[in-house]
Structures are given as structure tokens and as C-alpha cells.
């Protein structure tokens, strides 16, 4: 997920994955995201296959107040589908 901060203040978020298949998605860099002023950053979301059915969850980015500034809460729909399996 690509995030941009066009503001002149640092934005900070707590990232949470919720939903039916939330356990199948993970955030390898942790649950805290900080974006400096006028910069951009990426949140990597990893998926671990457990079933052959499509998996769905929601990524919530909940703003933390930094220097008295709050950002908007952001939501992203996460969907993954297995289309091919190679034997080991």
C-alpha cells in the first residue's frame, strides 16, 4: 500500500487487519506507520495461503496524534485468490 503525506506535519498510524481472513494477512514491518511531512512510504502486506478459497480482510490505518495533528482514518480492502499451485 503506497501512502503519501502532502501535509507539513508528520502523520502516524496504527495498522490493524480485521475480518474473516485477517489471520492470513500480516504486516512484516509491524503495526506502526510514520510518514514524515511531504514524503511517502509503503506498507507491505503479506498473505499466507491456508485454503484454496479467496481470502478477504480489511486493513485499517487509525491515526495517532503527532504534535497535535490527527490524520484521517484510512481503510483498504485486502483480497487474495490462489490461481495456481506448483508442487514442491
TrEMBL record:
Gene Ontology biological process terms, A to Z: sperm axoneme assembly
Highest taxon of source: Eukaryota
Signal sequence segment: none
Gene Ontology terms: cellular component: cilium
Protein name: CFA47 protein
Natural source organism: Lamprotornis superbus
Amino acid at each position: 500500500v503506497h501512502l503519501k503525506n502532502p501535509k507539513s506535519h508528520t502523520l502516524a498510524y496504527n495498522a490493524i487487519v480485521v475480518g474473516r481472513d485477517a489471520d492470513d494477512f500480516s504486516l512484516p514491518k509491524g503495526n506502526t506507520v510514520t510518514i514524515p511531512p511531504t514524503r511517502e512510504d509503503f506498507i507491505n502486506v503479506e498473505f499466507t495461503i491456508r485454503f484454496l478459497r479467496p481470502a478477504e480482510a480489511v486493513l485499517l490505518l487509525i491515526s495517532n496524534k503527532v504534535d497535535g495533528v490527527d490524520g484521517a482514518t484510512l481503510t483498504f480492502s485486502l483480497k487474495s485468490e490462489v490461481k495456481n499451485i506448483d508442487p514442491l
